């Protein structure tokens, strides 16, 4: 069964779950050129189709026509997210489909949208680009510069000093979340997506991926920061 038929027959929400799209972002997703309301059993798809027609919020797209990296990249069996992305690109790429996020335009939202373009990029300690790989802070540094046009510190501990502190109960998609993974505060960073999920470059042998903030991460939680709309950020 193709992904398009799966989405129509199983409903939009189930399709998003299969694609590892966080539930917190599902409410803002539509498929360009695809009427998800065709399946009358898909109430979510119907509501989204209606809201996308009447919404005045800007629509941001994540293209499925290109690789998630700037270079040729192939998923393997150990990378289920990459497999799904590759399959989606193969089936939708020739049809001009895009994932669309209808959300208010803020620095944090743009960061959340931008970082999703790099799911599946390999982890590399000290890495700062899609072609060579990312470490956790290299990913954030790259996305902030490329998608927000702001220059932020390169190291996670320094990134934890910028923006505005955010209480965990008030987290929003795009907030930076920090953890202690190396015996030091703020030694790991990711981007919050909503629904207690975040995107990060986890460790050697892994790829940029979405994870739940599980008990493992709870024990290592150090805080969160929200970036401003300013185009310049002071280095520390």
CATH superfamily of the domain at 103-226: endopeptidase domain like (from Nostoc punctiforme)
Strand content: 15-25%
CATH class of the domain at 103-226 reads Alpha Beta
Kindly, what is the distance between the CA atoms of the first and last residues, rounded to a whole number of angstroms?
52 Å
Task: Summarize the helix and strand pattern as letters.
Answer: HHHEHEHEHEEHHEEEEEHE
Mean pLDDT: 72
Rg measurement, Å = 18 Å
Q: What is the number of beta strands? A: 11
Poorly predicted ranges (pLDDT <50, ≥5 residues)? 23-77, 94-105, 231-236
Which descriptor suits the 3D outline? globular
Structural class: alpha+beta
What kind of sheet is the major sheet? 6 strands, antiparallel
């Amino acid at each position: 069964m193709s992904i398009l038929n799966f989405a129509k027959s199983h409903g939009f929400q189930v399709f998003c779950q299969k694609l590892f799209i966080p539930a917190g972002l599902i409410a803002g997703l539509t498929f360009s050129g695809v009427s998800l309301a065709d399946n009358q059993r898909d109430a979510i798809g119907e509501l989204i189709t209606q809201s996308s027609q009447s919404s005045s919020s800007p629509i941001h797209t994540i293209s499925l026509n290109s690789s998630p990296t700037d270079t040729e990249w192939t998923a393997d069996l150990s990378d289920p997210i990459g497999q799904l992305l590759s399959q989606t690109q193969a089936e939708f790429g020739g049809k001009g489909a895009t994932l669309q996020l209808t959300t208010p335009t803020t620095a944090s939202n743009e960061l959340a949208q931008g970082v999703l373009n790099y799911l599946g990029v390999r982890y590399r300690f000290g890495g700062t680009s899609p072609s060579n790989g990312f470490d956790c802070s290299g990913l954030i540094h790259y996305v902030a510069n490329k998608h927000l046009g702001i220059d932020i510190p390169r190291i996670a501990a320094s990134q934890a000093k910028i923006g505005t502190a955010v209480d965990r109960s008030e987290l929003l998609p795009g907030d930076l979340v920090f953890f202690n993974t190396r015996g030091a505060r703020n030694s790991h960073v990711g981007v919050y997506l909503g629904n207690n999920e975040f995107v990060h470059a986890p460790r050697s042998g892994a790829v940029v991926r979405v994870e739940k903030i599980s008990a493992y991460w709870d024990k290592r939680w150090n805080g969160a920061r929200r970036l401003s709309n300013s185009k310049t950020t002071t280095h520390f």
